[in-house]
Amino acid sequence: MCTRYAFCIILLFFWLNTSMSFNYTSCEHAKQPKFMSSCCDVQRSDGTIKSCRKSLLANSTANGGTNLKSDKVALHACIAECSFRANGFLLSNGTVNAVAMQKSYQQRYKNDPAMSRLLEKSLLGCVDYAQQRAQQSQWMHSKGECDYYPATLLACILEEVYINCPSNKWKNTADCAAMRKYLIACDDVKSSKK
């Protein structure tokens, strides 16, 4: 289950297309993060993320901590935390500033109200779930590493966006249909809320 979200974390930062065909037979199979991102056309440019990535990689082993160049899951968790802090989305008590995130989505998608609403709905549905998942997964992280909550929250939001992607943004291919089917069948976000 934890590897499922590790792959989603990586998904947040890799947006390449793939032409491979996927046949998922169980929820234990890993998702292909590069593929999922090519199915729903979501605006992805974020200068803060690029800046955080560059800074983190430049200082990757300066403090004797995790080598972020070789630990991609930790790198993406640190990028998400850095981005959340820079944008004012992560409060000092470790919770998320949902109002600031909603305003950011509204601004970023001001010409696409359907996508803005989908992101806001996904955010509200994922806040508590992501906090619980991050707390459950703390055993995976060494002391002094980045907070995995922002990356877990982003992974949850992104998964919900792909499951509910508006038809005008959805790439209707067999591979994308298979990915959506997998996400719906294996959606532990919804199953954990029951």
Description:
With 194 residues, the protein is an all-alpha fold. 56% of the residues lie in helices and 0% in strands. The protein has nine helices and no strands. The chain has helices at residues 2-11, 33-36, 47-58, 72-87, 98-108, 113-136, 149-163, 174-185, 188-192. The longest helix is centred in the middle third of the chain and has 24 residues, at 113-136. The two termini are 18 Å apart.
Q: Mean of the pLDDT scores?
A: 76
Helix content: 55-70%
Task: Report the portion of residues in β strands.
Answer: under 5%
Question: What is the number of helical segments per DSSP (H or I, 4+ residues)?
Answer: 9
| Total DSSP E strands | 0
Q: Low-confidence parts lasting 5 or more residues at pLDDT below 50?
A: 1-25
Distance between the termini: 18 Å
Which radius of gyration do the C-alpha atoms yield?
Answer: 16 Å
Shape: globular
N to C succession of SSEs:
HHHHHHHHH
SS-based structural class?
A: mainly alpha
Main sheet overview: none
